[in-house]
């Protein structure tokens, strides 16, 4: 689900792989035309809008992730039974311009008039750009910090004070910990995540001031490998209770339980994943929230631009206690929960210092859960260790660590009369130049010989090792060119998730193109069309998001089969070779 207009990211890698060119030009021409058809088809469908109110939900991950996305999907499911409501959903939409494309599609093709882009990174600049472009559509974003006079009136944010739930998690964790070391796996250092970390640590320290909390940031909302590595790293240091703030806690919960550590859940109830080790958890309860929004939208009433609620308001709830929770822990947590339900309870109160020694809350000062200051939190409390990615990180990039924006004046424009930026032309030119270099120069001849048969290249006296280094440098340069164009033409800034999936796509393009630089062009258009159609197929046909990946895999396997069977079965042989 990367940028659908940014095909240059898959044009570069295939042009420099040293290998013998064995293309079937006719097949490539046919697949290129099919790719053009796939790319054009989604925008040629006549919109067929449903009667009543169409509500769109967009998720950054799968709807069954035992976490953030599942909590929102369960809330969205609650509005399906409401009269006159049509629900459209799309999962696995990246926090890039991909979400803008999905929003455009839901509005123009499905007729959505109320949009819920649920992931934090969707807000700025993506949702805000769509708000300006579609002023009659209402947008409500989970966790965004909407400001009067700064953000559009058809935009708004909603969130729950789930930090109180993490505070209760911390209390239970402190009673369960024998090592006095607890751990937190977090995705990104945004205000809501930092508040949850601090609340968990302070809840534990309210029971035992000597407890320390170790924090590891994975840098991604959902990356199973890093989550498993982080969990194992914490447990290896003697930590015996962990919690997390990632989109899908499933990996963290299962890994910790497998290692013998206790777990406090987050987002949804994960007790089924670790029945003996699950202590309790802070859960979202979005069903009533979404019902209220939809009911107001149907009546034409204002939705509210800044909506918040906590445990007392039904926005947040706690998972049932697990069998490992002691009676003492239950009594302590229940007593604090009763105080929270009364209102006015403060977790963040002075004197409070950060882990760098800076005082952030003076003595006598306290912030209740509704304090707006907490929504811009940028610190971790003392007695916590942490690792934050990004030495080049822009301090203002709270939603995801990224570089500073290059500025509108430095962005690459689009081709006249199209939505495609000049990067596509640069990619095509790079392919043409690569073809000339490979087919019309002695260097290209040496490259083809080396790529086709290293032993033969050595027998011919070619400097194989030197050539391989040159090929790697050129490949990296082409990938760097593609990344530069992606930043300068689409995003304006670089971040860790900018090129997710492009490496796989580049390899697939190179293989289908048979290492022919010119063939890379139509094959890229083919795969770009497939990717562009993914969201529409998911919503209109009810197929899972992985359908397009499966289709690409089938295409890949079919090419492999054609290579294996070609010439071995009589009817697949060229007419001149048949006997």
Question: Which tags fit this structure?
Answer:
18 strands, seven-stranded mixed β-sheet, 3 domains, four-stranded parallel β-sheet, Rossmann fold
Describe the structure.
By secondary structure, the protein is α/β, with parallel strands linked by helices. The chain has 3 domains: 8-46 and 408-575, no CATH class; 53-160, Response regulator (Rossmann fold, 3-Layer(aba) Sandwich); 163-284 and 310-385, 3-Layer(aba) Sandwich (Rossmann fold), CATH 3.40.50.2300. Helix content is 44%, strand content 13%. The chain contains 18 helices and 18 strands. The strands form 5 sheets. Strands 13-11-10-9-7-8-18 form a 7-stranded mixed β-sheet, sandwiched between helices. A 4-stranded parallel β-sheet has the order 2-1-3-4, sandwiched between helices. A 3-stranded parallel β-sheet has the order 5-6-12, with no helix packed on it. Helix 3 crosses helix 10, helix 6 (163-176) runs antiparallel to helix 11 (327-342) and helix 8 (224-236) packs parallel to helix 9 (250-258). The chain is globular and about 80 Å long. The two termini are 49 Å apart. Residues 1-47 and 387-391 have low confidence and may be disordered.
Overall pLDDT confidence: 83
The number of distinct helices, counting runs of at least 4 residues, comes to: 18
Largest sheet: 7 strands, mixed
Percentage of residues assigned to helices: 40-55%
Ends: how far apart? 49 Å
Q: Uncertain runs with pLDDT below 50, 5 residues or more?
A: 1-47, 387-391
Instruction: Count every beta strand, where a strand is a DSSP E run of 2 or more residues.
Output: 18
- Determine the structural class based on helices, strands and strand pairing: alpha/beta
Q: What is the approximate shape?
A: globular
Number of separate structural domains: 3
């Amino acid at each position: 689900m990367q940028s659908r207009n940014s095909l240059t990211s898959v044009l570069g890698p295939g042009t420099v792989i040293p290998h013998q060119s064995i293309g079937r030009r006719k097949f490539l021409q046919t697949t290129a035309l099919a790719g053009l058809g796939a790319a054009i088809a989604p925008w040629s469908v006549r919109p067929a809008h449903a009667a009543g109110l169409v509500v769109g939900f967009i998720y950054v991950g799968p709807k069954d992730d035992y976490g953030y996305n599942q909590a929102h999907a369960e809330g969205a499911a609650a509005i399906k039974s409401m009269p006159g409501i049509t629900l459209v959903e799309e999962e696995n939409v990246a926090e890039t311009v991909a979400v803008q494309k999905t929003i455009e599609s839901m509005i123009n093709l499905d007729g959505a008039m109320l949009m819920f882009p649920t992931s934090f990174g969707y807000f700025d600049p993506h949702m805000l750009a769509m708000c300006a472009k579609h002023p009659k559509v209402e947008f409500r974003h989970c966790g965004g910090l909407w400001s009067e006079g700064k953000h559009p009136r058809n935009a708004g944010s909603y969130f729950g004070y789930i930090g109180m739930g993490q505070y209760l998690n911390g209390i239970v964790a402190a009673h369960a910990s024998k090592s006095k070391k607890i751990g937190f796996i977090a995705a990104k250092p945004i205000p809501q995540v930092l508040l949850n970390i601090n609340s968990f640590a302070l809840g534990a320290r309210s029971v035992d001031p000597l407890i320390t909390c170790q924090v590891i940031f994975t840098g991604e909302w959902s990356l199973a490998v890093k989550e498993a590595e982080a969990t194992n790293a914490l447990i290896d240091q003697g930590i015996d209770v962990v919690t997390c703030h990632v989109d899908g806690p499933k990996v963290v919960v299962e890994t910790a339980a497998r290692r013998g550590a206790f777990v406090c859940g987050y987002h949804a109830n994960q007790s089924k994943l670790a029945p003996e080790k699950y202590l309790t958890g802070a859960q979202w309860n979005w069903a009533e929230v979404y019902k209220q929004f939809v009911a107001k939208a149907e009546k034409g009433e204002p939705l509210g631009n800044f909506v918040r609620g906590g445990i007392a308001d039904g926005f947040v709830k706690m998972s049932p206690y697990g069998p490992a929770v002691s009676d003492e822990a239950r009594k302590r947590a229940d007593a604090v929960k009763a105080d929270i339900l009364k209102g006015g309870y403060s977790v963040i109160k002075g004197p409070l210092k950060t882990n760098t020694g800076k005082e952030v809350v003076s003595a006598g000062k306290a912030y209740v859960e509704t304090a707006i200051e907490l929504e811009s939190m940028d610190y971790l409390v003392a007695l916590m260790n942490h690792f934050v990615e990004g030495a080049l990180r822009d301090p203002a990039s709270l939603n995801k660590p990224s570089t500073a924006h290059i500025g509108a004046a430095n962005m690459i424009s689009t081709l006249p009369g199209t939505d495609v930026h000049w990067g596509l032309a640069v990619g095509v030119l790079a392919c043409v130049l690569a073809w000339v270099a490979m087919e019309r120069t002695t260097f290209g001849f040496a490259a083809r010989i080396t790529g086709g048969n290293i032993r033969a290249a050595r027998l011919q006296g070619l400097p194989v090792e030197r050539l391989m280094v040159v090929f790697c440098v050129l490949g990296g340069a082409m990938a760097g060119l593609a990344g530069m164009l992606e930043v300068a033409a689409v995003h304006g800034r670089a971040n860790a998730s900018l090129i997710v999936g492009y490496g796989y796509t580049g390899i697939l393009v190179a293989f289908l193109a048979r290492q022919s630089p010119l063939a890379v062009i139509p094959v890229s258009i083919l795969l770009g069309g497939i990717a562009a159609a993914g969201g529409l197929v998911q919503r209109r046909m009810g197929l899972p998001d992985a359908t397009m990946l499966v289709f690409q895999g089938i295409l890949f396997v079919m090419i492999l089969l054609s290579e294996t069977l070609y010439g071995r079965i009589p009817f697949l042989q060229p007419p001149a070779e048949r006997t």
